[in-house]
Amino acid sequence: MSDFVYLDNAATTFPKPPEVIQFMCDFYSARGVNPGRTGFDLALEAEETLAEARQALTDFFGGTDRNRLVFSYNVTDALNLLISSVLKPGDHAITTCLEHNSVLRPMYRQAENGVEVEFLPFDARGYVDPGDIEERIRPNTKLVIVNHGSNVIGTIQPVAEIGRICRAHGVTFAIDAAQTAGLVPIDVGEMMIDVVCFTGHKSLFGPSGTGGMYICEHIDITPCRAGGTGVMSALKGQPMEFPWRMEFGTVNIMGVSGLLAAQRWIAARGGVDAIFEHEMRHARRLHEGLAAIEGVRLYCADMERDHLPVFVFNFDGLPADQAGTFLDVEHDVITRTGLHCAPQVHEGIGTFEEHGTIRFSPGVFTTDEDVERAIEAVAEVAEYARARNGRVAELVG
What we know:
13 strands, 11 helices, 397 residues, globular, Aspartate Aminotransferase, domain 1, Aspartate Aminotransferase, domain 2, 41% helix, single chain, four-stranded antiparallel β-sheet, 2 domains, alpha/beta
């Protein structure tokens, strides 16, 4: 039995596959030089690993040109780069109230700079209506960006339908795939997604400090940054060829090697569908167990609809942060509490004023035993909360 139950995979998947860690260490110790900056053998080998990773992720997202798979620090970096490069004063942009701060804060900044930004609400079950997006598209709408899967309530948005609408109106459509890349199939062609932004340390099973985006061929972006690329050094401006148009400075080659190894590991594990079903089986059991416990409130957790293995809950009369501490210290159940960097979601589900919720997110290494331990722990915390609430009621009375 493990010393702890790890249910915070929506923050970062843990542990990483041993094969990924070993490949990274072997690669960096043998070929950890700067790729593409010179012609000696080690640099060429490092560049080849970089090219393999671009190709693997391009294929993974249904892309057609690996040079348009660009790497960044993480999905927040990619989203900032995209939003700042696409939007200009006088433009109109549409996003949702399901967004993480990695979209909200750049959008607030754009609003301060003269971009009109609309935030679409979600319904009581946690979904955005694509028709609401179509109704709000204007002649000056330049960008629609949607959180593919909520990091709080786990709902998966109908991005293919939204993509068709945006394509018909000639509006660039981007998705934040932080929670879905590696769990839910994403095909930029079939779904008519123009830009997919991803992070490496969640369900792509890579290391932290990795991420990027795939930019479809018909999308023309003028970068808001400039810097070294290792090629065309005499130019005063940023090269307009991809990937250098949207990559600046030295790529995290060790991290990218981990993403390549993780792509191979995902395939060997049976692919995205097999991993998703494993995690959803545990999420459904967790949901079922918690739903039967008196004093536990679940939010937007219809696990039979389009849903990730992520959901949030609260205890009656017990703040989320205290409950999370009890789960951790008393029961060795590791989770995430608070607003989860997505305050508008909590406003929508009514948990903002009580400072958020507790989030459970099982992962590929979660076991049946882990799930039952977590349910038992929640039941004990709920019993404590009921007893405490009873004592408080007696004192008040």
